[in-house]
Every structure is written in structure tokens, then in C-alpha cells.
TrEMBL record, chain A:
Stored Gene3D superfamilies: P-loop containing nucleotide triphosphate hydrolases
Chain ranges of the ABC transporter domain: 4-239
Keyword Nucleotide-binding attached: yes
Protein name: NitT/TauT family transport system ATP-binding protein
Record-annotated membrane-spanning stretches: none
From TrEMBL, chain B:
PANTHER family to which the protein is assigned, alphabetical: ALKANE SULFONATE ABC TRANSPORTER-RELATED, MEMBRANE SUBUNIT, TAURINE TRANSPORT SYSTEM PERMEASE PROTEIN TAUC
Annotated coiled-coil segments of the chain: none
Protein name: NitT/TauT family transport system permease protein
One GO location term (cellular component): plasma membrane
Gene3D superfamilies linked: MetI-like
Entry's localization field: Cell membrane
The species this protein was found in: Cognatishimia maritima
Keywords carried by this UniProt record: Cell membrane, Membrane, Transmembrane, Transmembrane helix, Transport
Amino acid sequence: MSFVSVSNVWQKYGNRSILERVNVEIDEGEFISIVGASGCGKSTFLRMLLAQERPHKGEISIDGGVTAKEPNRERGVVFQKYSVFPHLSVRENLIAAESFDTAFGRLSGEKRKTAAERADAMLERIGLNHVADQYPASLSGGMQQRLAIGQAMTAKPRILLLDEPFGALDPGTRLQMHDFLLELRDETNMTVFMVTHDLQEGFKLGDRVLVFDKPRWDPHDPGMYGATITYDFDARDGGIPFQLKEDADVSA
Amino acid sequence: MRLINHIPGKPLAVLLAALPFIALFAAYSIGSDIRLDANPQDKLLPAPSTIAETAQRLFTEPDRRSKEILLWNDTFASLARLLGGVGISALLSLLIGLAIGLLPYARSAMSSFIAVVSMVPPLALLPILFIVFGLGETSKVVLIVIGITPFMTRDLAQRVLEIPQEQIVKAQTLGASSAVIALRVALPQVLPRLISNVRLSLGSAWLFLIAAEAVASNVGLGYRIFLVRRYLAMDVILTYVIWITFLAFLIDWLLKTLSRKAFPWMEAGL
């Protein structure tokens, strides 16, 4: 049994179909890149994995569980921006990843001390220990995204969802972030889903690259049919395609 | 060079800031001089020196009958009403604003109601308040609360709604309950806004306070102004007006300082 299982998922907003017949099985520890044209539903797919949206039809199960109704600690997320809390210092942002799960959102005494120690260890790892007491607004874009990733990892989620995490960064910083993410991945063996516009980035970081596209197109009613996974590439070992979805099953 | 690109230097900027005050004072002095020249008994525009003498008397000399300094009594009574009303409004608007901003059920139930209530002219309700709550302190505090709460609530609810959805989702993935999101994510981010709302609404709060005191009271800054109006005691009225202006300015400055000290993260990006 695979770790994340998406079976026959459909999504529509009103009469507009966004996704249809999405089926995919993911093993634990896989890094999945999700690519596709704008408006082809890849972000919608991520929001459903996040349980920010519920599928119109179908099941999304993590480790055999039922389809979640709202976001929870099983899923960590990093958005393109606004992922960290501007009113908390860098260290407090990491402590929040532990304290928000309590009744009043605060830790006290011994618990707070050990959480702060773990936060400092994480800061060391993501290279932000020199700015621990600053607020996120005074950090560069790359540092903010490192903090957001560190914060998501501190909560120890089962899957990590990245929604164009490096989209707003300059090319140099983006390359540094790639190295950082690959390093982090080797250490934790986390299951990661990353939506990206950048094909090269998708193939560089991912074990598998899922391509979303509309297999059916009604020129009179573009909202008639939704998108689905049209290609599922093996991106390891230089990215040799191992599977080409048969056009027959979708172009009926 | 274009006018919009002309920037005054530091000394000139200070001078320019002082200029309107000097001009106003000069205009008043000249007007007062002209009137007093024609009629030394004129009460309409007392000389600045007369106002200064009156002010000194009002601040230091006790009333002959009650042996108390009336100006300080008026000040404390008015400030208690003002701060009571503004404090209650701030608390109410914070609670309702957070509820409307965070909870879809509260939003459905309350937002149109608040929008309609904020259109009711509060002063038109004053007679009703006097009938319902009597002529004591309650009606004056309630007038301030009714006058400024709806506007503050709407603004705070809007501010809560403007918190990026990403932050709210992120907090949920960290295991935060609705209460924790309200307390640790939304509340700290709207508190600076609450303080700026209080600063903005203090002007209206003074207006409602003085109106209520003018109609029915036996102590208070507004009451005294409307009492001495009968004797055309312009020197007393002007002293009170300057004093109220100073108090309002002081409260505003205190709130601004508090906001800057309490929310260092607001300026982190600047």
C-alpha cells in the first residue's frame, strides 16, 4: 500500500471543472514535482492535498487515513509568501510550530525552554541563528523562505507541501535554496509535493514529475472538462520517462 | 524644478510648522486689540493677557463656595467618562471584529447589522439614552460607545479579513485551534490597528462627550463651557477649549508612543 493515495479525485467550482479523474500513488519519502500551464489545476491539487479544499468527488488518503476535512499537523506547507508570522521574531516563529498545538497557543517553563533549544538547533541548521531575534520583515526573501521551511519541518508533518516556494526569489538565491532543500531532504527522507512553474527546477529536485493538463478540450465551453495528470516522469537518473499515460483512456 | 520636488530644509520646516500657530495668534491679538480699543469692556475677544490671568486663576484658585478647584473636577469627570466610553468601545470592537473577521457564522449574522447600526446618527439617540439610562454617568458613556463602536468594529473586522489566508492555513497546519488562531495570529496583528482606531475616534468621542455634558450634567469640561456661555465669559471658554485641545493632543501622543513601543515588528520592514 502506498503512503499517499489519490483515487479518482474530481474538483469543480460551480459549473467549471478544474480537475477530473486524478489518480496517483506516492511512496513514503518521494519528492514529487508538479508542473503544468497556468490555470491547469496544479495549485488546486495542492490545496486539496493540504485539505484547504475538499474534493468534489474521490478520496485523498495519507497512510491509509480518510480524506481530511481541514488542514492539520499531518501536512506542512510553505507558500510563495506570507508563510511566516510577521509579528513573531524568527525564533518565536519556530517555537510557534510547537506551541500552537496547545490550548492557549503558549508554552511555559521547562517546555518552553526545551522548545527554544530545539528552535535554536533548527536555526543553526537553516543558517538563521544570527537573526534569531529579528522580525521576518527585516529578512531577505530567501531567508524568509528558509524560515518558513524550518517552521513547517519543526511541526514534523507527514507530508510537506510547497506552493511555488522559490517563485519570488532571484535566480542566485533560488539555486542556494535548491541545495538547501536537497540537503534537508537527504537528512529527513520527508515526502514532499512541490508545485513549480520552472520545469528545470521540477526535474532537478523531484524524484517524479507530474504534469497536469487538459486531455479534453471543448472550444465552445472551456470550463467543460477539467485537467488531470497527463504525464508521470521518473526524474531520477537524468529523468528518463518511465510511464506515458495512454492517450486512449482520456481522449475517449 | 517642479513644485513637488522642492523639499524644505530642517530649520525651514520647523519655521513652517510654527507659522500657522503664529499667524492665528497674531490675527486673534490684532482683532482683540481693535475691539478693546473701541470698547474696553468688550467681552467677545479678551486680550491674550486676560486669558492667561483667567487660566492661572482657574487652575489654582478653589471655588469660594465648594472650596474645590472646579477645572480639575471638570477634567477628572470628563476624562473618566471619555476613557470609560472609549475603553468599552475598544474592547467591544475588538471582540466583535475578531468574531466577524474569523468566523463565517458570525460574519453572516453580524456584518450587515453593524453596517446599518453605524449609519444611525448617535446624537439623535441622546434623548432616548437620557430617558433609558437617566441623566447620570451611564448615558454619557453609552453615547460615546454607540457613537464610535460600529465604525471601529467594521474597520477591525476588515483588518482581520485582510490577514493573508496563507497565515491562517499555516497556523492550522501547525495544529492551532480557532481560539489559538484568534489569540496568537489575529489579535496581535490587529492590536496596532485598534490603537490607531482609538486615535481616530477620539475626536468623535470628545464631540459626543461635550454634547452630552452640555445637555445634562453638573460637572465636566463641556458642562462648564456651556454654563459660562450664559455670562459671555469668553476668557473661561477659551481657557477650557485650549485645555481640551491639549488633553486630546496628549492622549493622542501617548497612544502613538505606546503603539511604537509595543509593536516593534510593525517597523521591522522599514
